[in-house]
Amino acid sequence: MNNKSLVSVLMISHNNYGGGASRAASRLQMCLLENMSQVEFLVAKKLGSDHSVKEIIFLRKILCFVFSRVDRFICKIVEPRNLEWKSAAYFGAITARSINKSVFSVVNLHWIGHGLISLRQLNKIKKPIIWTLHDEWIINSFSHYTDISTSEYSGIRSFLRKQRLNKKIDFIMKDNVSLICLNTELAKILQFKFPLKADKIFYIPNPVDLSVFYPDNNSFNHQIITHNENNPLVLFLGGVSDKRKGWDLLIEAIKINNDTFTLGVIGDVSKQKYGNINIEPIKQINNNDILREYYSKAHLVLVPSRAEQLPQVATEALSCGTPVVAFKVGGLPDIIVNGKNGMLVEPFKINEFSEAISYFVNMPKIENTKNCRNFAEQNFSFKIISKKYSDIFQNCLN
Fold first, then answer.
1. Using one digit for the tens of pLDDT, what is the confidence trace for 72-116?
2. CB 253 within 8 A of CB 236
3. CB-neighbour burial class of residue 360 (10 A; exposed 0-12, middle 13-18, buried 19+)
4. Nearest to 317 by CA among 233, 196, 386, 260
5. What is the DSSP letter of 114?
6. Is this structure's pTM higher than 0.70?
7. SS3 of 102, please?
8. Strand order in the sheet with 300-303
9. Are the C-beta atoms of residues 228 and 292 closer than 8 Å to each other?
10. Helix, coil or strand: residue 386
11. pLDDT value of position 1
């Protein structure tokens, strides 16, 4: 007997690969298919042969490309000092008319920048909309992450920023719109700003495929990084070029740390040595089996980010039984229990971050593996997340 819900869902995101939001959306689609009969993923750029992932037609892809360039130009003019990711959403390749005419009963939005759909068209969608928020764009005019420098703009720039924000407010306040936040911090901010919408603002973390990410006790078969009990492996997989990921903060913490370990880093770094700490570059990992091996063999994963919603590096590491040390920002307080599956450090206290690294590096990892895995099973499983989404979809239709 098929117990799947008859709710049909149209997911929309710019692509199904690459960035964290796209990976999370692709994973959510797999998750939702466990509870629902029809889940289609509409993107401007598709990777892979999954028939449930559909690309917009060629002409609209060209429009999306053009609008993306126009979008970036407008953002540079309006907020020139803000170097964060920005989207204007004045123009978009997807129309509300095509969505309203579709057979799907619910629309689930994800990352819609780069000329995919405009705010004007979003306001014309009549179907129930559930927007999964992968960043803070919803509460800012153009930036995907809050930048205090934007408060300095005046004149026409100030007018355009206010106009964009008002468009978003109009959209948020529509009866058919619900918001899903990846952390409780953003959910509380939105509930405070929009008290009349409080019952349509939810907290649901991204799912993790626990059959892919699990404590892997097999031998380390791929790119070898020298490590052992006396020289444990610690990972930083956030990328070194994005200031938001905090590589510079981590280096400061490493320089004052007296422990012995190897720090594996994805990004443009060379082999370095600080005291007894070796920094080893890791090539970009595009295979989940290899990624699972790294997580599983690591003694600890570091997330020194200045801002995050819910980093999948952290949820995947916990699923593989590896504790996480991070600054207390974004969604990290929702998933790290101090001393149990990692450690939270007040932003951005370098000495305390270094001490937290020492705490776990000098502790047998086996003491934390079970706690990490249990937390993942109780909070990130496909079964749990798909049930939460399914309930929201059903309530919206009712």
1. 999 999 998 888 889 999 999 999 999 999 999 999 999 999 999
2. no
3. buried
4. 233
5. T
6. yes
7. coil
8. 272-274, 277-282, 261-266, 233-236, 300-303, 324-327, 342-345
9. no
10. helix
11. 44
